[in-house]
Fold these 4 entries.
Entry 1:
Amino acid sequence: MQATNVIFLRKAKMELIAVSIYFLFWLFGFLFLYRIPSCNGELGARGGYPPISVIIPARNEERSLPSLLSSLHNQTLKPDEIIVVDDNSEDATAEVADKGGAKVIHAKALPEGWHGKAWACWTGAKEAQGEILVFLASVQPDGLLRSGVHTWRKKASFLFSLITK
């Protein structure tokens, strides 16, 4: 009889510990999720954001660049500079970028061990003046810059990345 009481007390103690741990995890989760910042700045307002540079590595992108550049110019949070790194294009990529209001940089010869897009991104990053660097390769929806920069501004992340097809 006494052995069953001991077993019952041990089970009750283990259940109490399990419930306590569950409650602590729930409490910590609530406290951390409560601190996630919300993006509630006014649309179109600069809102104290630091300078933003958008870097676009481009090779033979004369057909897709106009819509991307137009989209960037129509963002509610406009970048301070748009840099297109022409990665030895065989079409009119550089001319289209220039007409679209972007600063055009021509990538130098690819160093050994580097790949094209990574080298173009590095080349653009070295020329960028912004405190925040955004790398794009396709048309992005409005508000992406605001969301990404807001995340960075609140120190929730030091790297914001979105990979698209």
Entry 2:
Amino acid sequence: MIEVEAKVKINSRDLKKIKDKISKLSSFVKKEKKIDNYYTLSLLDKYPKKSLRIRKRSGFYEVNFKRSYKYKSKVHAKNEVEFRVSDIAHFLALIHDFGFKKWLTKVKISYIYRIKPNLHIELNYLKYLGWFIEVEYLISKKSQIAKARSQVSSVLKSLGFSQKEIIKDGYTKLLWDKK
């Protein structure tokens, strides 16, 4: 799966206005609390460029890692690999044995809205960072990236955000920089 996304930091006093705009473009799907632990093989003297994420879901754990394609037109495109792990204790023992170290925990409350299949908006609150709006389009082929980038930008524009407001860094980098 390829994830094409962009995000903008928003002020909490603008939430109602932004929610009203979102509700005109999309349908509310669900509210979800996501607690993610990140692990890396890198030394922790600087921000790790590669890591894997473990997210607790109901009844299982989800492991995720991403490889970036080019950052273009202020919109990220990443190849995303996810799989389920039912025995987290053994999986953690395995990755620790290979030398992985936990380097970050991210807590995010997401209000998820659907525009159409595979295109959605998330209104996210991140502990220590505040509120963000994120538009994400999930695609299956590299040949769809340009169109997906255009759609993501178009949604942000229709919500009243300009290209210059898009934040390049991911949430983990923003959290790392807060340390």
Entry 3:
Amino acid sequence: MRDEASAAAGDPHDPAGLPTADADSVAVSGILKWFDATRGFGFIVADDPAIGDILLHFSVLQAFGRRTLPEGARVSGTAVQGQRGWQAVTIAEIDLSVALETMRDRDRARVDPNALAAEAGEWEEVTVKWFNRVKGYGFLVSTERPGDIFVHMETLRRAGVAEAQPDQRLRARIIQGRKGPLAVAVAVIE
């Protein structure tokens, strides 16, 4: 059985050398235990206890136009057994209806920007300092206040901003979040 520590010791997010479906591949199904989008892999708990955990690399999900899956998703496909355990080589079906809506403890304490919009100040002109789509957040700066202003990707999406670029001018409504200033609404300057 593949153990998670051995996967982390290697480089499972390097697509070079990934196994492919062949005569040794077997049909498998199971539930996604976890998936780390940053590292590009996760583990499926196989329905067959003799198989155990199956490594799921993000490249296998690309046929479905995905790079990640939520915990608890049911998947079926094929896997091969290598020196370090089982690894998925194809995914035939993904059932997200059984995926867990998990909320980590740290997420429970996060502020809800929608609920706090009423508490935000007036619109301020801001400039994008930097934004990382992969991480899903970035920072703005304002001439009216010192320091950085956190902005989440969802806040930008709600405003119709698909791609925030450094030095892009926007307007924002800002509150004091747990870790500092937080943009709860943004608008494009016309």
Entry 4:
Amino acid sequence: MRRVRVASAAGLVLAAGCYSYSPLPTSVPAAGMRVRAALTNDGADSLANSLGPNVVAVEGDVVRADSSELTLAIRGVENTRGERDAWRGEPVEIPGQFVKGLQQRSLAVGGTSLLGGAVAAGLVVLTQVFRGGGTLQGTGGSGTSAGH
């Protein structure tokens, strides 16, 4: 049963892991890839009816892409003030001339490992607390005070 809990915790850490963005290795992203597209000023203005006012970047899953257009299932948008709004995967077509830059999302191994270690340590502590009747057993001291 303990292995199941540890495996479940590890799965949660990977699913909710830390992600970072890096430049695309190719000029056209593959379908299914999660990307962040920075918009040009003209793009932000032209797509305001679809994305909302003052949107400078969109994040989503590539539905279709070629050198002239990018269709994303939008997961979120970011405006000029750095505020982010979540979306539910609605598809939006973005003409290529409106994309200033593209980055791909990838798992940040270092951050996810650190998060995984913290979760594992927390599970160990909780297991000890519940198995030990709510107390942790220390290794230092004799448990008696001087003079008694």
